[in-house]
Amino acid sequence: MTLSIIQVIISVILIVVVLVQQKGTGLGAAFGGEGNIYRTKRGLEKSLHILTIILAVVFMATSLANVIL
User: Fold this and answer.
1) What are the start-end ranges of the H helices in 1-69?
2) Which of the four, 38, 43, 49, 65, has the lowest number of CB atoms within 10 Å?
3) How far apart are CA 67 and CA 34, in angstroms?
4) Is the dihedral of CA 29, 31, 23, 5 positive or negative?
5) Residues 6+ positions from 14 with CB-CB distance below 8 Å
6) Domain residue limits, the chain
C-alpha cells in the first residue's frame, strides 16, 4: 500500500519536472522549433534533465517492486 502511494507521488513529481523543461527541444526542433543543430544543456536545464532521469529510474524501480511484492 505504501509503495503505491510512493509511486503516485513520484509520478506526479516526474510529470511536473517534464512540464517545467523548456519547449522547442528534441522532436519539436525538427518541425521548426529551434534552429540550433547542437546545443548543450547548462545550469537549471541540465539539473532538470538529470532529475528527470533519476525520477524515471526510481519510478521504474518502484513499479517493478510493486509487481514483485
Assistant:
1) 2-20, 27-30, 44-68
2) 38
3) 41
4) negative
5) 52, 55, 56, 59
6) 2-68
